[in-house]
Amino acid sequence: MENKKRIVVFASGSGTNFININENIINGRVVLLISNNPKCGAIDYAKKNDVDYQVINDFRYPKDKNKEYETVLNDYQPDVILLAGFMKKIPNNIIQLYKNKIINIHPSLLPKYGGQGYYGIKVHEAVIESKDSVTGVTIHFIDNEYDRGPIIMQTEVPVNDFDDANTLSKRVLEMEYKLYLKVVELFCSNKIQIEKDKVIINE
N or C: which end of the chain has fewer CB within 10 A? Predict the structure, then answer.
């Protein structure tokens, strides 16, 4: 247990990717959940499954929220931070402190349908509206811009003729579970490196 990489997860909603990783990760362990939403499903799960959690938002820390992130993370010493449906932008001080250690998942083939305003079902609605034949999942390290940063792995999901945003989102989510877990296992096994903003995977 002590040799496993320490994982902190940020989530705002149901936390299904957080749950999937917590229940299936082999080479790491989730030591903390951070959320801005005290009533979200992710926190409900954490409470029932003995996962430490912290609520950090503007209401609780109106003047020093960014510093609170730093303090809490310092206490838990994560090897990697995973964003799993976290609806707030990670502050620059945290991005700098944990450079190339913060991983995000996005339900499209970035750079398509990325950036502010593209999240959740809105991404799938845009894919359907554009009549794309293929969408997918992207796992990437974050930087100071929404849905940017070095791409670690992508995988395609076909868009069927009968799909709407809801049916498509379910199939993309199934792929998210598989790909995110795979990437996190690789990271926790020291098989992911970055050289000059390019990701190298040694599988």
Answer: N
